[in-house]
């Protein structure tokens, strides 16, 4: 059965478009918060402040049942209005204004209050009102400019296109610019729809994006593609921020997310299916328990599976994820460079409460005791002699191969756990503390772990999301 | 203890220089053969023929106790004087001239008779007397020109230098241009001494030879190095034949032999020792039997060791070796491309009688059932989808790595013996017939093999000649 792309997209758009009632309710909450703040702050503070609505509610690009409300308090820049004043004076006042409501404090990149009003999250964020984005004092000061730009450039129909794109990204774990995802932010999704007009046109066009060679510059702020790429040479994709040409709205995107998005887009174009928007219904080995998947990896692939368990000391998500990603790379690089295992794979999990993290390291064929080292050409005498001296009697070889190179089969340091622990020690992460190294290949150990982690482990081992893509391909023939 | 290079070389030169008595005796044999031939041929044949001395005796570059005598019968080119006439008329006549002597017939690239006179091999080779090497009819017609060139360009002192070089090459298995060695021919050794003056100067200068980028053109027959290299672009080293500029005297040299020679030269310069000329005295694990070495490889490196046993159907050494080398490459390439084993090593042995050949294939960590395949970048949508379709459910994965590429862990075809046999079948060698595939890791099988092969196997597994080089390095410190 062949599906029509447009009808799939229109159907999804209907499903995820918020109802008039929902929008009304959220706006009512906002109006209530706004008037409370205006009254309360004018009584408590001697500051000029503007209460504004930002975020996807302001832009009408939020998904049904999934909106929070972003309220920005805009202050005039003044020497006595600083982070410290936000934190020590403003935030307590805001809390006191809403003493009947549940709230949380957030001091991540910026101090702000999250209020729960009628089960809706309301973020109350202080920022500065500046003339132009080139004069930002804090990162959030850019937000009102983003809101304004998107509102004035997205038609009503295109807000649906943004919603479809966001929903698509969420399905495949690609939504969000934070370090845990390194995917597409909401603002980036909006810019892409502005650039391409519709979700479908975006999908059709993105297949010609080339990694590190594509610059999307909606407002033509750069003279040439080349100039643009030179400015952002380390970013896999460049989408110039229309309100701040020095910023790449896609800078957080990883090559992995970039690749997955392109792959999905290409596949959807070739083989459209509503299942792209219902991936929870794609079942892959759903009845195989994690224990079985682990056993398969240990027995079939000769895998060692280690779980590096950390206590999270400073629960700032981007910092924790940044450190976990660095650790993961350091550990896999060290193991690879020592020739341990055929393949080393790793990924990290964090619990919901942000108290514990586990990095899983899978080392395939970990029971090898020797590894091949390719040396210099034997005719490169200086280096060849150094190689021979260095490789005196530590395994088989060296020998000269048909290619004229020296090779040796070198003994591996098989104390893998120690190598991992030393690597972590060297990285000395400030927000993580290693508590133990779990042998996940051990059935009893596996029974003690967090159920959420156990489920995540299964998905890691099974190679999500590619397994779901494979399922979509099943029984199909794509003309190569 | 530090040795002086010159004194080592002078000492060796003394040892290997033939005595006056030996030279006299060989010349006497030659004179006897020559006069017998002159008389006998003039009686039996109606052809103008010149009996000449060629080879290392003629050039006085032979080693003590190691000379055979090359006698060339030079005929005028004539339509009725062809290979067939050589074979059917001349050779029987030559044999009849020496009916009291033991002889063998050789029909390799050229029909000739080898006579055993007083335990000395005398090769009687028919060839054509031509005006210039550009007009050769048979490959051996060039020989008289080589002899003349070398005789007129080597001083008496330099003949010693050639001998030392030849002896050095023999020690390390680098002497001979035939397919079994792919090393340095005697003529090449002579040219190198002519080019560099002495053995030591050659060693000192060869360290600056660069693979595929060195052209030694003694007579400056090419306008530029570039022109020379373009002409011989597939040869690792070019030594233009002074008597035939279209020919590279080093064309048979393999990159492996080239590499080993440079390595040895560099090492001798850095650490001169008489042991370079006495490598049979360098003992490496001499008391470990082959069985033990095999056991070590099987148990420590997880090796499978196969011996592909061939009957030699047509015993022409260069053809057999050429086919063995091709087979060996085909087998290792096939196994590697299928991801079988961590490392595949192979080499071949032929018995002295030229009746049987065994190619040994060592597959390290051969018990692996899966192998890593690196696919295209996931953002290269067309190829990524093809890769996904191709790799449906045949092992672990595919997954997207941090580098944005697709990887899969693919099941290996573990019927190694069948893969090897299919590959040999595809090559269909004309001079070899596969008789069986031996499992050399099996102790009982190992006990049934030829003792010469068993000794050779030990040396193959232990990585000669690098093991001997390592021994020379032992207890030494070479400033890197």
TrEMBL record, chains A, B:
<feature type="binding site">
    <location>
        <position position="146"/>
    </location>
    <ligand>
        <name>ATP</name>
    </ligand>
</feature>
<comment type="subunit">
    <text>Homodimer.</text>
</comment>
<keyword id="KW-0460">Magnesium</keyword>
<dbReference type="InterPro" id="IPR015329">
    <property type="entry name" value="tRNA_NucTransf2"/>
</dbReference>
<dbReference type="InterPro" id="IPR006116">
    <property type="entry name" value="NT_2-5OAS_ClassI-CCAase"/>
</dbReference>
<dbReference type="InterPro" id="IPR043519">
    <property type="entry name" value="NT_sf"/>
</dbReference>
<keyword id="KW-0694">RNA-binding</keyword>
<keyword id="KW-0547">Nucleotide-binding</keyword>
<dbReference type="InterPro" id="IPR008229">
    <property type="entry name" value="CCA-adding_arc"/>
</dbReference>
<feature type="binding site">
    <location>
        <position position="68"/>
    </location>
    <ligand>
        <name>Mg(2+)</name>
    </ligand>
</feature>
<feature type="binding site">
    <location>
        <position position="175"/>
    </location>
    <ligand>
        <name>CTP</name>
    </ligand>
</feature>
<keyword id="KW-0548">Nucleotidyltransferase</keyword>
<dbReference type="Pfam" id="PF09249">
    <property type="entry name" value="tRNA_NucTransf2"/>
</dbReference>
<dbReference type="InterPro" id="IPR002934">
    <property type="entry name" value="Polymerase_NTP_transf_dom"/>
</dbReference>
<comment type="function">
    <text>Catalyzes the addition and repair of the essential 3'-terminal CCA sequence in tRNAs without using a nucleic acid template. Adds these three nucleotides in the order of C, C, and A to the tRNA nucleotide-73, using CTP and ATP as substrates and producing inorganic pyrophosphate. tRNA 3'-terminal CCA addition is required both for tRNA processing and repair. Also involved in tRNA surveillance by mediating tandem CCA addition to generate a CCACCA at the 3' terminus of unstable tRNAs. While stable tRNAs receive only 3'-terminal CCA, unstable tRNAs are marked with CCACCA and rapidly degraded.</text>
</comment>
<feature type="binding site">
    <location>
        <position position="56"/>
    </location>
    <ligand>
        <name>CTP</name>
    </ligand>
</feature>
<comment type="similarity">
    <text>Belongs to the tRNA nucleotidyltransferase/poly(A) polymerase family. Archaeal CCA-adding enzyme subfamily.</text>
</comment>
<feature type="binding site">
    <location>
        <position position="175"/>
    </location>
    <ligand>
        <name>ATP</name>
    </ligand>
</feature>
<feature type="binding site">
    <location>
        <position position="59"/>
    </location>
    <ligand>
        <name>ATP</name>
    </ligand>
</feature>
<dbReference type="InterPro" id="IPR042090">
    <property type="entry name" value="CCA_tRNA_nucleotrans_2"/>
</dbReference>
<keyword id="KW-0819">tRNA processing</keyword>
<dbReference type="GO" id="GO:0042245">
    <property type="term" value="P:RNA repair"/>
</dbReference>
<keyword id="KW-0479">Metal-binding</keyword>
<protein>
    <recommendedName>
        <fullName>CCA-adding enzyme</fullName>
        <ecNumber>2.7.7.72</ecNumber>
    </recommendedName>
</protein>
<feature type="domain" description="CCA-adding enzyme C-terminal">
    <location>
        <begin position="302"/>
        <end position="412"/>
    </location>
</feature>
<keyword id="KW-0692">RNA repair</keyword>
<feature type="binding site">
    <location>
        <position position="166"/>
    </location>
    <ligand>
        <name>CTP</name>
    </ligand>
</feature>
<dbReference type="InterPro" id="IPR048833">
    <property type="entry name" value="CAA_C"/>
</dbReference>
<dbReference type="GO" id="GO:0001680">
    <property type="term" value="P:tRNA 3'-terminal CCA addition"/>
</dbReference>
<keyword id="KW-0808">Transferase</keyword>
<dbReference type="GO" id="GO:0000049">
    <property type="term" value="F:tRNA binding"/>
</dbReference>
<dbReference type="GO" id="GO:0005524">
    <property type="term" value="F:ATP binding"/>
</dbReference>
<dbReference type="Pfam" id="PF21133">
    <property type="entry name" value="CAA_C"/>
</dbReference>
<feature type="domain" description="Polymerase nucleotidyl transferase">
    <location>
        <begin position="37"/>
        <end position="146"/>
    </location>
</feature>
<feature type="domain" description="tRNA nucleotidyltransferase substrate binding">
    <location>
        <begin position="160"/>
        <end position="277"/>
    </location>
</feature>
<dbReference type="InterPro" id="IPR011068">
    <property type="entry name" value="NuclTrfase_I-like_C"/>
</dbReference>
<feature type="binding site">
    <location>
        <position position="56"/>
    </location>
    <ligand>
        <name>ATP</name>
    </ligand>
</feature>
<feature type="binding site">
    <location>
        <position position="166"/>
    </location>
    <ligand>
        <name>ATP</name>
    </ligand>
</feature>
<feature type="binding site">
    <location>
        <position position="59"/>
    </location>
    <ligand>
        <name>CTP</name>
    </ligand>
</feature>
<dbReference type="GO" id="GO:0004810">
    <property type="term" value="F:CCA tRNA nucleotidyltransferase activity"/>
</dbReference>
<feature type="binding site">
    <location>
        <position position="70"/>
    </location>
    <ligand>
        <name>Mg(2+)</name>
    </ligand>
</feature>
<feature type="binding site">
    <location>
        <position position="146"/>
    </location>
    <ligand>
        <name>CTP</name>
    </ligand>
</feature>
């Amino acid at each position: 059965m062949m599906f029509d792309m447009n009808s799939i997209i229109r159907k999804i758009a209907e499903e995820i478009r918020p109802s008039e009632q929902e929008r009304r309710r959220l706006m009512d909450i906002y109006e209530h918060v706004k008037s409370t703040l205006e009254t309360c702050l004018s009584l408590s503070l001697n500051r000029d402040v503007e209460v504004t609505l930002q975020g996807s509610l302001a832009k009408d690009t939020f998904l049904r049942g999934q909106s929070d409300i972003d309220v920005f308090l805009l202050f005039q820049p003044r020497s006595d209005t600083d982070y410290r004043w936000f934190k020590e004076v403003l935030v307590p006042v805001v809390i006191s204004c809403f003493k009947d409501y549940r709230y949380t404090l957030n001091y991540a990149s910026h101090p702000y209050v999250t209020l729960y009003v009628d089960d809706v999250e309301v973020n109350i964020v202080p920022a500065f009102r500046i003339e132009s984005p080139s004069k930002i004092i804090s990162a959030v000061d850019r937000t009102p400019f983003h809101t304004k730009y998107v509102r004035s450039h997205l038609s009503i129909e295109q807000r649906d296109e943004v919603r479809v794109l966001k929903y698509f990204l969420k399905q495949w774990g690609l939504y969000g610019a934070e370090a845990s995802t390194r995917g597409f932010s909401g603002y980036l999704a909006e810019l892409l729809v502005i650039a391409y007009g519709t979700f479908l046109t975006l999908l059709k066009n993105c297949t010609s994006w080339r990694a590190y060679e594509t610059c999307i510059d909606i407002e033509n702020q750069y003279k040439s593609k080349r100039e643009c790429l030179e400015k952002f040479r380390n970013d896999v994709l460049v989408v110039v921020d229309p309100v701040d040409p020095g910023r790449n709205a896609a800078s957080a995107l990883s090559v992995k997310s970039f690749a997955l998005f392109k792959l999905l887009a290409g596949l959807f174009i070739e083989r459209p299916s509503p299942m792209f928007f219902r991936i929870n219904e794609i079942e892959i080995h759903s009845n195989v328990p994690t224990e079985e998947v682990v056993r398969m990896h240990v027995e079939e692939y000769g895998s060692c599976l280690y779980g590096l368990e950390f206590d999270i000391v400073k629960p700032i998500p981007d910092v924790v994820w940044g450190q976990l990603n660095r650790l993961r790379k350091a550990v896999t690089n060290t193991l690879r460079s020592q020739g341990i295992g055929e393949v080393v794979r790793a990924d990290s999990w964090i619990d919901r409460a942000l108290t514990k993290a586990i990095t899983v390291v899978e080392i395939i064929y970990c029971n090898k005791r020797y590894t091949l080292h390719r040396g210099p050409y034997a005719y490169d005498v200086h280096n060849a002699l150094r190689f021979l001296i260095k490789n005196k009697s530590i395994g088989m070889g060296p020998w000269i191969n048909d290619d004229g190179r020296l090779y040796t089969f070198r003994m591996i340091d098989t104390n893998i756990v120690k190598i991992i622990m030393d690597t972590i020690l060297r990285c000395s992460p400030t927000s993580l503390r290693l508590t133990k190294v779990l042998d996940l290949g051990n059935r009893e150990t596996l029974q003690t772990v967090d159920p959420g982690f156990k489920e995540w482990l299964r998905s890691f081992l099974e190679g999500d999301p590619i397994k779901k893509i494979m399922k979509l391909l099943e029984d199909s023939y794509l003309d190569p």
